[in-house]
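URGENT: need a sanity check before tomorrow's submission.

F., can you look over the Clr5 domain-containing protein record below? I want to be sure the sequence and structure line up before it goes out.
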Amino acid sequence: MHTESGESSSSKRYATSEDWPKFQHVIVRLYVEENKTLEEVRQYMEEEHDFTATISMYKRQLASWNAFKNLRFDEVLQILRLKRQREAEHNKGSVFFVRDRKVEFDSLQIYISRNPSLYAKLESGEEPHSDAVRDVSCRTPAPLEPPSDASEPYKRAQEKAPAVMPKPTDELHEELIQSLQTYMSHGFESGAWVRSGSHYWSSRGHRGPAELLKSLLDRCMTAALSVGRQVEPASIRHALDAPFSLLIRVFKNPPPDMIPRILCIAARLESIGRKEIQGILLQFCSDLARALYGRGHALSNFWQTLFDVPAAETNRAIVVVLTHCVSEFEGRLGVSHSLSTEVYLLYFDAVERQNDPKVQAENLDSRLSKLEEQNIDPFVLATLKFEHALAACKSDLADGQLDRADDVLAQVDATALSPRDNSFRCVWLGYVRWMKGDITAAEKAYKDSVQAAKLTGSRDCVCEALFQLETFYLHRQEPLRAEGIRAERLNTLRRLGAITWTDRDGSLGKDPDNDSMVTIIHIGSDASSEVWDPSAATIMIEHHDLFNEVSTGV
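Structure tokens as predicted:
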């Protein structure tokens, strides 16, 4: 049984109720003002003040002192209420404070993005807790003035400042949301999107554009995972030619979930370190919308505004838009509608998947409790339940409960899942069983993942499943078997057309099968290869390393 850091020695004297008040100002300063983690605070207090306490004890005391570093739900709800009131009455900017501590705009946006129900509570007029009303205040920011001792160079720089300054990020966010709402209103009210059973589809093509969109975005991810970072931008752009040509067809007849689906992929591209491909995708969407619809169209305005957001702020803007997408679809169709749930799953994939697994499981459990199962597509419902099971599995892994992690995935009804989701389930089963030391069962699960992927009809999905099996063999130090899987994977990549792949030297060459330009990616022929790039398997490796740290006490 693993104990908390600081609890392993019975000889230590732990802080008593009389000790805490003596060091309250130091602890609060370290945790809140200097933004240290609880573990850093614990270590500092033990080394510098001979003050010993567990993490749990620190949590209880900080709560009793009302010393919260993170925002709370009712506080953010009160901030949103005050912001709306001030904008309606005075049209003034606002700076918000919680317990006299300034709320940073980034922290506020991140919290809102992770709690989309905030806007629903705000619209319903729900009152925050009285403590939040008391603790939250706001002020009008002071106007910026030049320094009193402004020098001539400063004055000349001010005179030469451009007449048109870049728009503030929050203003760009407002334009994004306005364009999104205008575009969606037109889609639903003009008949461009029509209802069919428990779904909404494009009026022309029905399911076709939506399925095509999923396929081409899979292709973008395959390109991102297959093209080396050292490859020239022109080669990357060439790798995207095939999916981008399909994207033109989708933009001409966009399905209702086009924006959230593209933004989910854009967020995933950044999460795997391929921001340059994210930029290419967003620029293409902006250029394409303008070419098809003209500059004044809501869809053109949306993509152009998103492309205008500074690169460092792009992911935050994507989170803001995805949050509003969830609210928009729920408001128009209801929480239980299949499309609302699919959009929530996209939001979950891009945003909430970064949260602690326990938080993920709680959010998904809350979502499931709101659904009327008879009104939702069985595959969509099965996907939501699978995500809940996967979050529980990750939580069990973090707690070292391997048998429980195995059981929660094994009990998922695989027949209710799409082949793609079942392939992903088998990958995680393989990983869990590998951690348990059941190598035979792990290998079978990875192979089952490949078989499930082949049922999807998607070569992109097959490439991913083969990559996971290859990774398993590499870590098992079975280079010959890994090389055989790698050969199968690269042959599949070749058949994808314009997708590039690369070798160690990164040189460009011709694919003998289709005479297209290719770059060959060398994954490595043994487990110790220095050029091995884990890419898609990073999440597995992180969990593997974490498990080893917990097991060995490192």
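My own read: The first helix runs from residue 24 to 33. The two ends are 15 Å apart (CA to CA). If you see anything odd, call me.
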